[in-house]
């Protein structure tokens, strides 16, 4: 291991926890007091120190500069989760190159859209996909395709370590774009959300402070890193706290149970926690070192929250974020983690609930969620009109979420605005119905959608995953009528094996709406 590498790790007093400059890499690394501290623990229990990752990311940054990739150029990465993949992200930050991560599961047809839209100077992919992606790249005018695996042809990681010693982190303005994250594209084509070095630094610092990350923490990281949850929220908290993390390639109950006794914090999506609860090995004793379980990216069911607390003695901390803004709200580390809410606005960010005319609504009244702060993205890539339309005149971003705000500031979400059902002229918020359905014995989970109806305009429809559900449709309706107004009662109940989800566990209601769009059509 090389130890004489001049970098931001060494270019500061070890006792200080501050930074100068705007480059996110320098900001992230500034909290590391001991360069030899373990940063990553792999699944095979081998380790990577902060100095190791610093050297590796410098080598990648140097190679990018040698290829003529410069500040402001885009790099598209479609690679599996690995130490090298994380170093690629950090190397891009150091170079001022805009990092564009993509889901490794995307097909060539899907990938073509992103390459044409982002117009990257370079594509980085897995060796097994190199030939077909290189061919596609040529068709879209991209001349450079590389991999990050060592000891293979066309790798960005080569043995020119000595030259990398001379690489200096590129100076950037705080509003220079660091990353472009494509949104899920549930309506229309995916959009590239541009996040600046400053956006990410502010949100990361707020999260680190909110969740009290320190050098004593070990994060259990089993999330993908092509998404803001695993790449930003998890990794940035660890680096800003000078902590360590168990870096697993994917979520596996067996592997997570193996490493939980060595961890202090875990971040996950609700599915991770339901799968742990389904395993009898997951008991309080295995969580003896854990201080915090965090959930996000999809709503956490009340049943999961309560069962988890009963099993472990710990409450899951739920938060709310999105690609364009990072995390907006979080239940408190110390204080009430209020069930059914996503907590309080984070840091100095602002959040308001308004009607369709941007007028504030009273407490506990459903409205449109809007946010404002230094964490909010710069806009959508090459879509100035769309960007303008998504911001209010006074600078608030329209999240597209529907929610309400309690008198004491807790935020509750009731769904996406596009998921709002208008049946017979009455507004139906899907989550309100789903909460009641999920209380029924035998209902594993549910998704409530609106489908075209010749009389009502939209018909409230429930799609249910069941496990020995014994109630008939008529009995379910009777149960719901005791709890909900009649216009909110689903017209039909559809039983399926699994709800469609994206990579982060969010239910894709758009797929359900398309699949059942002709359910009420009169022939």
Explained architecture:
It contains 15 helices and 25 strands. By secondary structure, it is α/β, with parallel strands linked by helices. A hairpin with a 5-residue loop joins strand 1 and strand 2. The radius of gyration is 24 Å and the shape is globular.
Task: Pick out its properties.
nine-stranded mixed sheet, 23% strand, disordered N terminus, 28% helix, single chain, 15 helices, alpha/beta, four-stranded parallel sheet, 523 residues
Radius of gyration: 24 Å
Q: What profile does the largest beta sheet have? A: 9 strands, mixed
On the 0 to 100 scale, the average pLDDT is 90
Widest β-sheet, arrangement of strands: 2-1-10-9-11-12-13-14-15
**Count of helical regions:** 15
> How would the global form be characterised?
globular
Estimate the helix proportion, in percent.
25-40%
Q: Which class best fits the helix and strand makeup?
A: alpha/beta
> How many extended strands?
25
The separation of the N and C termini measures 73 Å
State the assembly state of the protein chains: single chain
Q: Stretches where pLDDT falls below 50 for ≥5 residues?
A: 1-19
**What amount of the residues lies in strands?**
15-25%
């Amino acid at each position: 291991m090389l130890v004489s590498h001049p970098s931001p790790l060494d270019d500061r007093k070890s006792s200080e926890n501050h930074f100068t400059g705007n480059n996110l890499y320098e900001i992230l690394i500034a909290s590391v007091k001991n360069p030899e501290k373990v940063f990553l623990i792999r699944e095979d229990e081998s380790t990577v120190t902060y100095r190791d990752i610093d050297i590796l990311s410098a080598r990648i940054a140097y190679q990018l500069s040698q290829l003529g990739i410069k500040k402001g150029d885009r790099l598209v990465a479609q690679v599996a989760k690995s130490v090298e993949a994380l170093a690629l992200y950090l190397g891009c930050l150091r170079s001022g190159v805009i990092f564009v991560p993509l889901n490794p599961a995307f097909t060539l047809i899907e990938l073509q859209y992103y390459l044409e839209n982002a117009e990257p100077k370079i594509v980085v992919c897995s060796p097994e996909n190199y030939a077909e992606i290189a061919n596609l790249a040529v068709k879209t005018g991209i001349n450079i395709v590389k991999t990050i695996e060592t000891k293979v042809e066309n790798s960005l990681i080569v043995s020119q370590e000595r030259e990398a010693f001379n690489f200096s982190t590129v100076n950037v303005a705080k509003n220079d774009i660091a990353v472009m994250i494509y949104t899920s594209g549930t309506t229309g084509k995916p959009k590239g959300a541009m996040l600046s070095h400053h956006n990410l630094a502010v949100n990361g610092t707020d999260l680190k402070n909110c969740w009290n990350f320190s050098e004593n923490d070990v994060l259990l990281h089993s999330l993908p890193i092509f998404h803001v949850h695993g790449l930003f929220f998890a990794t940035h908290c660890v680096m800003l706290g000078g902590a360590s993390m168990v870096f697993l390639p994917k979520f596996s109950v067996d592997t997570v149970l193996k490493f939980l006794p060595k961890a202090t914090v875990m971040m996950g999506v609700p599915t991770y926690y339901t799968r742990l609860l389904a395993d009898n090995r997951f008991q309080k004793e295995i969580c003896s070192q854990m201080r915090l379980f965090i959930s996000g990216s999809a709503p956490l069911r009340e049943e999961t929250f309560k069962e988890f607390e009963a099993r472990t003695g710990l409450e899951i901390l739920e938060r709310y974020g999105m690609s364009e803004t990072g995390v907006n709200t979080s239940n408190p580390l110390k204080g009430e983690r209020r069930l059914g809410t996503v907590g309080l606005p984070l840091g100095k960010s602002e959040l308001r609930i308004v009607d369709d005319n941007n007028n504030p609504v009273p407490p506990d009244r459903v409205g449109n969620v809007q946010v404002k702060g230094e964490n909010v993205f710069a806009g959508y890539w090459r879509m100035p009109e769309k960007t303008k339309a998504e911001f209010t005149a006074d600078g608030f971003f329209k999240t597209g979420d529907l929610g309400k705000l309690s008198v004491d500031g807790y935020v509750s979400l009731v769904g996406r605005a596009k998921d709002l059902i208008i049946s017979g002229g009455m507004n139906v918020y899907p989550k309100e119905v789903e909460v009641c359905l999920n209380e029924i014995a035998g209902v594993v989970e549910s998704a409530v959608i609106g489908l075209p109806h010749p009389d009502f305009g939209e018909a409230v429809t429930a799609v249910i995953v069941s496990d020995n559900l014994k109630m008939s449709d008529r009995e379910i309706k009777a149960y719901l009528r005791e709890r909900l107004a009649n216009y909110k009662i689903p017209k039909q109940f559809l039983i399926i094996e699994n709800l469609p989800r994206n990579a982060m566990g969010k239910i894709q209601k758009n797929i359900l709406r398309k699949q059942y769009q002709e359910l009420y059509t009169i022939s």
